[in-house]
Amino acid sequence: MSEVVVVERNGKIASIILNRPDKLNALNREVFEAFDAALIELEHDDDVAVVIIKGAGRAFCVGYDVGTDNPERSKLKSVTADRDRLEVNVERWLRVWDFPKPVIGQVHGYALAGGTQLLTCCDIVITAEDAKFGFPSVPLGGGYVGPMWTHVVGAQRSKLMDFTAGSQIDGKRAVEWGMATLAFPAERLEEETLDIARKIARTPADILRLKKKAINRVIEGGDFRTSVLNGALWDSIIHQADGVKLTSQKISELGVRGAVDWFNSQDV
C-alpha cells in the first residue's frame, strides 16, 4: 500500500507530497499522522533548507475527508470533544506557520476548505493559473476556514466566499486577492516553484529562520494566532446547528456528491 504522505529530497529542497490521489488528497487521521512525522523529520534535517508542500494526482488537497467512510465523523460526542479535535487540526497548521524553515505551498488542481487552511500558514504559495481555491460545497461548519482567509484576502472577500457554499476562485484571482504569491501556467508550475525554492535556499538557514519570525510577528500582532485557534470554537458550536445536522444526514443518506446535488437543487 502506498504511503499517504511522501517525502522527497532534491539537494537542499525537500517536498512533502500529500498522496491520496484517489481521494484528491482529502485529509484524514492517517494523513495527519504522516504529515506530522514528515514535519518532524525535515525540521531536524540540517541538509534541508526549504520545504515544498504539494499534492499527488489531480489536486493539491480538497480539505477534510467528510465522506461516509470516514470514522472520525461518528466520534463527535460533545461540543467540547469536537472543539478539541478541531483545535488539534489548526494547531497542526500553526506548526507549519512556526516551522523554522521557509515553507512553499505548490498548488495545482483543487485547493479547498482545510487545504486552504494549510496554505494560509505557508510562507509562500505558488499556484497554477487554472487551479481552483475554494470553500466546501455544502455548509458543514463555519468560523473555521473563513477567519484564516480573512487575514490574507480581507473581510469582504472572505465573507463572499464563506457565505456561498462551493465558491471558488482560480489561481490568477488568488494572486490578485493575496491567497497566493505567484501564478504560472500549469506545465511550468513545478520548475518555477523549484527555481524559487533554490534561490531562497542560498540564504543561510539562521538568517532565513529569523527573517520568517520577524515577518510572522507582524501578522501575529493582528491576532492571527488567536483567530485561528478561535475558529475551532466557532466551528464546534456551528456543528450543533440544525442546518449542519441536516446536511450531515444527507451525506449519510446520499453520499457527498448526492448531498451537494441536493443542496444545489433547493429553491430560494
Describe this structure in words.
α2 runs antiparallel to α9. The longest helix is centred in the C-terminal third of the chain and has 23 residues, at 242-264. This protein has helices spanning 29-43, 79-98, 114-120, 146-153, 155-163, 171-177, 189-201, 205-220, 224-238, 242-264; strands at residues 5-10, 13-18, 50-55, 103-107, 110-112, 124-128, 132-134, 168-170, 182-184. It has 268 residues and is of the alpha/beta class. The strands form two sheets. A six-stranded mixed β-sheet has the order 1-2-3-4-6-9, with helices on both faces. The chain has a three-stranded mixed β-sheet with strand order 5-7-8. It contains ten helices and nine strands. The radius of gyration is 18 Å and the shape is globular.
What is the first-to-last residue Cα distance?
46 Å
Number of domains: 1
Coarse shape: globular
The CATH superfamily is 2-enoyl-CoA Hydratase, Chain A, domain 1
By helix and strand content, what is the structural category?
A: alpha/beta
**What would you report as the Rg, rounded to the nearest angstrom?**
18 Å
The mean pLDDT is: 89
Q: Number of DSSP strands?
A: 9
Identify the CATH architecture: Alpha-Beta Complex
Strand order of the largest sheet: 1-2-3-4-6-9
CATH domain topology: 2-enoyl-CoA Hydratase, Chain A, domain 1
Portion of residues in helices?
A: 40-55%
Q: Helical stretch count?
A: 10
Please summarize the sheet with the most strands: 6 strands, mixed
Query: H/E element string?
Result: EEHEHEEHEEHHEHEHHHH
* The CATH top-level class label: Alpha Beta
